[in-house]
Amino acid sequence: MLKVSGLRAAYGPVEALQGVDVDVDAGEIVALIGANGAGKSTLLMTICGAPRARSGRIEFDGRDITRLPTFEIVRLGIAQVPEGRRVFPHMTVLENLQIGATPAEDSYFDDDLDRVFAMFPILEERRHQSGGTLSGGEQQVLAIARALMSRPRLLLLDEPSLGLAPLVMKRIFEIIKEINESQEVTIFLVEQNAYHALRLADRGYVMANGRIVLKGTGAELLADEGVRKAYLEGG
Amino acid sequence: MAVTTLPAQRTLDVPAVLKECGLAAFVAFALAAPMVGLETLPLTGGLGINTRFGAVAYAAVLVFFGRLGFALLRAGYPVPVLIASLVFAAVLISLLLTGADQILPFKSLILNWFIALLAVVITVRAAWALHRPTAEMAARERENVMDRVGIAVLRGARWLGPLAIAVAIALPFLPFADRRFLDLAILVMTYVMLGWGLNIVVGLAGLLDLGYVAFYAVGAYSFALLALHFDLGFWVSLPLAGLMAAGAGVLLGFPVLRLRGDYLAIVTLGFGEMIRIILVNWYSFTNGPDGLSGIPRPSFFGFPFTRRPAEGTMSFHQLFDVDFASIQRIIFLYYVILVLALVTNMFTLRLRKLPLGRAWEALREDEVACRSLGINPTNTKLTAFGIGAMFAGIAGSFFATRQGFISPESFTFIESAIILSIVVLGGMGSQIGVVVAAILLIGMPEWFRELGQFRMLAFGAGMVLIMIWRPRGLLAHRDPTIRLNRDGDFEAPG
User: Fold this and answer.
1) The domain containing residue B77 runs over which residues?
2) In principle, which of A144, B20, B37, B99 could form an S-S bond with B56, CB 3.0–4.6 Å?
3) Domain regions of chain A by residue span
4) If you count DSSP H runs as helices and E runs as strands, how many of each does chain A have, helices first?
5) Is B478's Cβ below 8 Å from some Cβ in A?
């Protein structure tokens, strides 16, 4: 579904991606783990066209999207839940969801809203509250729901567990699983929390210094000695 | 942290209070001495100076006692303050009412009334403190009160809006509405319309535009040139002028929309000046600094407002078989700008509920998030710029037809600054706030006109007061564009 090959991207002179190859097949959950500054978020952002790739190729359903502007990429069916959630703080939950529905056809809106509210009852309760007054976990849920309103086929999640309490984090990972199974949305997620991410994922990639250093199924990577040392056992 | 309300302490630190009041009086003196105390007079052979130190001393004394009143209130002595301020207010008001105010140091009637008003405010606060001795109105609490007033006004918008419109419609027929008053009302209305137009750009889309007057100028000159060269009437030229201004907005928008915040502000500031300088220098086209005169007055849909119409045409007063009066044209102009302003308002309110309007607001909040949600930021900003510019252009052509004469002097940076102040002080994005701010900022210097040059001080004082009491604008509060009601259906509030 998504095919990234030889991707390079840079912020000024600093090369953040040094030739990355990643494949995501339809229906999968794929996790990308790695230390801070490895280039995980940059990879997700580059898929969406900001920053633009220096070289390499990004294909979505066989179509080259490397040079498309961000909003057109999103309209093809890729939704991104950006790092740090970025909900619109002064707009209500409902308005946030409406903005999310921009790329989708209007006729779907009511059904999609019901579906999202069924999945996340807390959002229905808080629908008139402004986004900025929600708790961190609720904001994360809202950010995911907002992305789902665009009816994506591929959902890019950037550190969905960031800054959340363990219980809330657990629930977020359950939600991701649910979305993948019941809504048939393919998921590509970036995580610091390697253990949870790899347990959830069908396949995983490990990234370091702008390169993919390891790949395999979630279980394989969890069992890998190097991964255990670097990302699972603290210190 | 446990909060305990202490009973008002009846301890009076006399030296501290005197020091505080003395300081306030000194500041008043220092401010008033050059501005009020010295007046330049044109004499033969140069400037002379007239001194008015009596007035300065009076001002300093007033400030001293006013401050003393507040200090005593704070220290828990409302009774003497109440008595003193009541006596002062009563004496002042009775002097003013009996017309014996010539013995007062200030000769300006409006200024004396203003002082009386302040005395009444102190009296009310003293009475309030007496009524609730323990509940000191802390600054924080006062802000909450003002917030609640703001929210109450917005809640009441449902009936306040129609009420305001009804008053505005009835205005020309009220007994006090003479020609001067109506002229002022037209002026205020023009700024309300400009404020609402700019509110789309600044309040909704969050693009700081310091050169809004450029589009006002484009509209005014478009209308004037169309009318003078092609003999087009007001109603034909009006939409054309709007379109041309919108075109100018899009033209400016294309190159500058990659800029944000401060940088955008600087570029728009430059654009505003460029338009003005072009108007000054392109003599063959715009008639340069001499301006364009002889711009046709609007007709009542083809029936002119003239005493003796040209052969073969019928004038307004003949059509309705009433006596000719020049105020008919003023009243008509008033209704034209009222309708134009209301159209602007309705357009904005409708747009806010459409995906485009929501996209503007989302763009203001977080551009990166917008991009990742499939919103095209360039087009969205361009429409905001274009639509805002269009309303400025329409207001500009109204200005041209009302004045009958335009020159680049009417479109200086200060106009942009005033319009922006109206939007910011009204509370960004608030429609009613713009009306209140326009009445205050445009009306106030006019009411204080008898103070001559000092009326700009009133303008400044108005701004300072708003900044102290309502730093986020008079009616800063954002309402959701839609709600779900109990049955799960959508409803649009307001």
Assistant:
1) 14-133
2) B37
3) 2-77+153-232, 87-151
4) 10, 10
5) yes
